[in-house]
Design goal:
Radius of gyration: 17 Å
Number of helices: 8
Structural class: alpha+beta
Oligomer: single chain
Largest sheet: 8 strands, mixed
Shape: globular
Strand order of the largest sheet: 4-3-2-1-5-8-7-6
């Protein structure tokens, strides 16, 4: 079932490892078949070096396993909440990449300090609030998804396809599983750049709106002119 999507999710998970965004069994990527209402996700705690495409787990949007003999990622409820609430996304990735995770542990959004960031994210990458004790003790992973959605009240998840979960780490999403991973790679780069820039100049300011607009919209939207037709 969903052999092509399982291959895509498998390759996207391997790409997390190839790009140095995860170590050991950390991190996970999923993908969704919107037409069938099914999600494919990495199995929990399986090493990237031994993992195979047929080990990817197929689940419903309610979290019921449809196919697969292994347990799905423990972060599955977070992924499912994002799929339910962000209808345009086709893939979700979660890492503990060092610089993005450092910003999450600091509980701070990543400001848009330059055009590299503006090319990809339309404004700062938000940091969701810390979960309460009750939210951690009862349906922790589902509540993680809920605080992410809460952080995007008034924001466009398609224009800023990334978030930091306070004291935890980053989640990204995209049009498909590999696109979600690409956004994780870019997020780690802009997190690193912001860390270094603020180390050089703690008073560095975000780019002005006109520069943000220029760089974001020249690559995104109906009037974009970056790249080839």
């Amino acid at each position: 079932m969903l052999e092509e999507l399982r291959k895509q999710v498998f390759e996207a998970n391997l790409e997390l490892n190839r790009k140095g965004l995860v170590v050991y069994t950390w991190g996970n990527v999923s993908g969704i078949d919107r037409g069938r209402g099914l999600v494919v996700i990495k199995p929990s705690g399986v090493d990237y070096e031994t993992m195979t495409a047929d080990q990817m787990v197929v689940v419903t949007l309610d979290g019921e396993t449809v196919e697969g003999s292994l347990r799905p990622s423990s972060d599955l409820p977070t992924h499912l909440e994002l799929y339910r609430r962000f209808p345009n996304i086709g893939g979700v990735a979660h890492t503990h990449s060092p610089f993005a995770t450092a910003w999450a542990q600091a509980g701070m959004e990543i400001p848009c300090l330059g055009t590299t960031h503006a090319d990809h994210f339309y404004g700062p990458v938000p940091c969701a609030r810390a979960l309460t004790q009750d939210e951690v003790e009862h349906e922790y992973e589902h509540n993680t998804g809920k605080v992410i959605v809460e952080a995007f009240a008034g924001l466009d998840p398609d224009a800023v396809p990334a978030v930091l979960v306070s004291q935890h780490g980053p989640f990204t999403w995209g049009k498909d599983p590999m696109d979600a991973v690409k956004n994780s790679v870019v997020l780690e780069e802009v997190a690193k750049m912001a860390s270094v820039a603020l180390g050089i100049n703690p008073y560095a300011k975000p780019v002005p709106q006109y520069l943000l607009d220029k760089h974001y919209f020249r690559k995104h939207g109906k009037n974009a002119y970056y790249g080839q037709v």
